[in-house]
Design a protein that fits this description.
alpha+beta, two-stranded antiparallel ribbon, elongated, about 45% helix
Length: about 450
């Protein structure tokens, strides 16, 4: 028998690949479920070209094609032995049976079986449980994509390289009508972290001792992460936001609709977003926390909340009430005002634009496995999370010890905290200049 691959539509930028099988004078056409950029397809070799800028994806495509060919040969084995030619339906049925057998063979070396057992029986918080469930779903998709079955021994450096490239070159749409984005390096790192935990808890040094694989401990098999290169708002910028009072006239740039009821809705939405965001900025809480505060005991002068994530043993964190927050509450704003995180995110960008936070800022981020720089007006880069980062950064600049701020942010090490806050060289120099060391005459 002979198996070759051809492009389904060579005129498109990316084409799906068709498998043509010739056996005993018959021709069978099947779909391996693989696509390729047409410019990198070698018609003579019937494989993807492993060129410099397409090497990793081409390698993965070729592995998929090799595995599909092996499945085809296995499907034809009975007919080769019996010297018969199967119908196309018989071939497809054999391929389906192979796939079903693979799914049903949850034996002792099935990594996915024990991965699911681990997180479904663990006493995890809902956020942690979701991370493991997400990782599991990706691994299921990986098995299907590459026509493979993950065993404990197969989670090696080859898997790591393929899985990394596969995740980082995929795109998703954050919300309807939004542009497509690549998954971040931190996202990939969170998946690998879950995988390493399960391998560690089932490995040779565990009670279970289900496998002897130690390749996941190789320094190259790492939980990658990068510090998010984002912006923070200074106290002077926050003061501009706090003093901004939206009215029919000054919201014109973000509300062209001149109907009274639409203007009133916009004004109210901006006021709510502004107050919610400022509360986040002066508490350094995550949006999932500052957006669910419902009451504050003004007499004690403290905000107490149990964060949804980020702290151990469900500890409460207690934060003094900043004068700006006190002013917001004294002005009649109700903490339990309901608004979605998406609305806060949208409207705080508009507010920053209206108060003139418009200077051009360049940030870097790993996209598709490559570091990409993006320059945009600062207000476009402001998000819900900017509140938390601004709070932590401004507290540090004000001289509050890092260890005290970490009690709020949940950072476990000072190193990770200092990477998180956004302090430039000039701000750091001013901070040092105010230190007694630089003002001593001894």
């Amino acid at each position: 028998m002979n198996v070759n691959y051809f492009l389904k539509d060579s005129k498109k930028d990316r084409s799906s690949i068709s498998a043509i099988i010739r056996f005993k004078g018959f021709r069978y056409k099947l779909a391996p479920g693989v696509s390729v950029l047409t410019e990198f397809w070698d018609q003579g070799k019937h494989r993807a070209e492993e060129k410099k800028h397409y090497k990793e994806e081409a390698q993965i495509i070729n592995i998929q094609l090799d595995r599909f060919e092996n499945r085809i040969k296995k499907a034809f084995e009975p007919h080769i032995l019996n010297n018969t030619a199967p119908s196309i339906d018989e071939v497809k049925k054999a391929l389906v049976e192979q796939e079903n057998k693979s799914k049903d063979s949850e034996s002792k070396d099935s990594f996915l079986y024990y991965f699911k057992e681990h997180y479904e029986n663990a006493d995890y918080k809902i956020q942690t449980w979701k991370k493991y469930n997400t990782t599991y779903n990706w691994l299921v998709k990986y098995e299907k994509q590459f026509s493979t079955r993950l065993t404990f021994s197969s989670i090696d450096l080859t898997f790591y390289t393929n899985f990394r490239h596969w995740i980082l070159t995929k795109k998703y749409r954050p919300k309807k009508d939004a542009p497509l984005k690549h998954y971040s390096l931190n996202y990939f790192g969170s998946l690998i972290k879950c995988i390493k935990v399960v391998l560690n808890e089932t490995g040779p040094n565990s009670i279970l001792k289900l496998h002897n694989n130690t390749e996941y401990k190789n320094k190259k098999f790492k939980t990658e992460a990068e510090t998010a290169d984002t912006v923070y708002l200074s106290t002077s910028e926050l003061d501009r936001i706090h003093k901004f009072q939206p009215n029919y006239t000054n919201i014109e740039p973000v509300c062209e609709d001149k109907r009274v009821n639409q203007r009133e809705r916009k004004i109210e939405a901006l006021k709510i977003a502004k107050n919610k965001f400022l509360i986040g900025c002066y508490t350094a809480l995550r949006v999932s926390d500052f957006n669910r505060l419902d009451e504050v005991n003004m007499n004690t002068g403290f905000i107490s909340i149990k964060p949804i994530k980020g702290t151990r043993k469900n500890e409460n964190i207690i934060i003094p009430i900043h004068p700006v927050i006190r002013e917001i509450l004294n002005g009649g704003f109700r903490l339990d005002t309901k608004v979605s995180e998406q609305k806060i995110n949208k409207h705080i960008k508009e507010i920053c634009q209206l108060v003139g936070i418009t200077e051009m800022v360049t940030i870097a981020r790993t996209e598709g496995g490559k570091v990409v720089e993006r320059t945009a007006p600062k207000y476009e880069l402001v998000t819900n999370h900017t509140a938390r980062r601004s709070g932590a950064s401004n507290m540090f600049l004000a001289g509050i010890p890092a260890i005290s701020i970490m009690k709020i942010t949940g950072h476990k090490t000072e190193r990770s905290f200092l990477k998180y806050i956004k302090i430039n060289a000039e701000e750091n120099a001013r901070l040092l200049a105010d230190h007694p060391f630089f003002n001593s005459h001894n």
